[in-house]
Amino acid sequence: MKKRIDKLARRKEFWEPWDEQERDIRDAIEAGTLKPVANEEEEKKKLMLAARATLAKDRHISIRLSAGDLEKLRSKASELGLPYQTLIGSILHQYVEGKVKASF
């Protein structure tokens, strides 16, 4: 696995930001315009609590999917290095947060 990551890291596109927010962060770092947060420890605690609340999984559900869809989800999850259930949960979370749209 380490050899694979090292090989990927040598490719230029490996280091390219994925989205606009990451590009903005990269640009701010390169320009030296980032400023330290005032109460860093307090902010860390607040963000950790928010992350835990977001990631907390306190309900179990069952869902029926076609065999083909499940296989594709497992394949996509494998490409991302995630368990397929984590990928499904992430997609659903993004949908309910309005970050992705469904078309019917």
Shape: extended
- Kindly report the oligomeric state of this protein: single chain
* Tally of helical segments: 5
The Cα radius of gyration reads: 18 Å
Low-confidence stretches: none
User: What is the average of the pLDDT values?
Assistant: 85
Percent of residues in beta strands? under 5%
Number of strands: 0
* Gap between N and C termini: 39 Å
| Tally of distinct domains | 2
Helicity range of the residues?
55-70%
Helix-strand makeup class: mainly alpha
Give the topology string: H per helix, E per strand: HHHHH
Biggest sheet: strands, sense, closure? none
Would you summarize the structure shown here?
The chain is mainly alpha-helical.
What topology emerges from the helices and strands here?
Blueprint: H1 2-9, H2 20-31, H3 40-55, H4 67-80, H5 84-96
Helix pairs in contact: 4-5
Observed structural traits:
5 helices; single chain; 2 domains; 0% strand; mainly alpha; 104 residues
Word description of this protein:
The structure is a single chain. By secondary structure, the protein is mainly alpha-helical. It folds into two domains: 1-54, no CATH class; 65-104. 61% of the residues lie in helices and 0% in strands. Helix 4 packs across helix 5 (84-96). It starts with a helix and ends in an 8-residue tail after the last helix.
